[in-house]
Specification:
The chain contains 18 helices and two strands. Strands 1-2 form a two-stranded antiparallel sheet. The protein is globular and about 65 Å long. It is an all-alpha fold. Helix 4 runs antiparallel to helix 5, helix 8 packs across helix 9 and helix 10 packs antiparallel against helix 13. The longest helix has 27 residues. It has three domains: 203 residues, Orthogonal Bundle (Hypothetical protein af1432); 99 residues, no CATH class; 86 residues, no CATH class.
Amino acid sequence: MPQNRFYNAFDMQEWDSARKPDYRSPFQIDRDRIIHAHAFRKLQSKTQVFLSGEYDFYRTRLTHSMEVAQIGRSICSWLLSRGDPLQDDFYIDSDLVEACSLAHDMGHPPFGHSGERTLQELMKRRGGFEGNAQTLHLLCETMYQNESGVKGMQPTRALLDGVLKYKKLYTEFATPPINHFIYDSQVPVREWVFGGAKIPGPLMRGEAINDFKSVECLIMDWADDAAYSLNDIVDGVRAGFLTVERVERWADGETIGAAEQRLLDTLFDALRRDRLENTFSQKIGTFIQACRLKPRDNFMAEKSHRYAYDLIIDESALNEAAFFKKMANDIIFESPQLEQLEYKARTILNALYNAIWENYAERNERVIRILPANVSRLIEAEKTQDGKARRICDYLAGQTDGMVVRTYRRLFDAEFGSFRDLN
């Protein structure tokens, strides 16, 4: 294929240090390094909605990320097929969008959103915790980290920008936010992503800077919305949370217009005919074809075509995604079963954080070494309490559901554990 004029040297520059070129494009290297990373493999045992490992057919963070990547690639193909402004030598790179999609959830902790909320509370006074900021932290700092000083995966500027769903710093908010921020320590990354360009004042008001995304980030974000707004419904039905009767009771308390009633009728018909997977797979295709590009002008548009175009989504598709997300939230996520998972996540993560903090941050005498040696060294090397807290948070966020439960049981369950479990 002819060289792709959509990207330039600015887009393909690598963070921290240059990589050795080979037969792959820079964006293919980005994708391959993500796929082969330990942090990516751990997603197979991290909760998406239901506890990982409970049943084989529920989605995990890994299968969800794969689905987002497929939808993202398909959006790229759809946009190219539409023609102007894209053409054979001027197109959005599907390898780059795939890399962004595969990476987008790597920073999320065990126990899904329950685990994320728990770490947010624990880190509220020490710089916060945010799943997307943690992904950025992995890509630039902790992934492939070793004792020789290697940090991160030397990602391209376009990849880093593609996973930057939020760009506002934790301390740029008037009060400590719960989410939708990056860490204060990530200022250099934000500056580098923009190539040192000064951010216009209007973008720093409110959360405007969080809405300022590259076109690849916009595609990844919509692919993510498309995947979980529809697939959470499918998993919810398979788990027995969503039945015709429960959805009807839920709908009785909602404002249901003609468009929403059509969505409900389609859902009920699919449930009664056992055609849910087929019906919702077709909706994925509809969501892909709801996308189009629109030119835009901003302070980054001359530096990169990634900011010269906006992704526009048909209003009907946006409304449908929002409708199913609300249904899943109200019926599934606020159910007693999921609230029990929330309680479990809080209990386990709070107990582990406090045990590690007591042994590695508060004590002056000999530490009881309850962590792997490499993690202990990282915590002990930090000079500030906030730095130690961040390292503890990194460790907990990097655990899978099973790993964190086993660690908890070894420490707090007198009937569990042997020397064989400690390696």
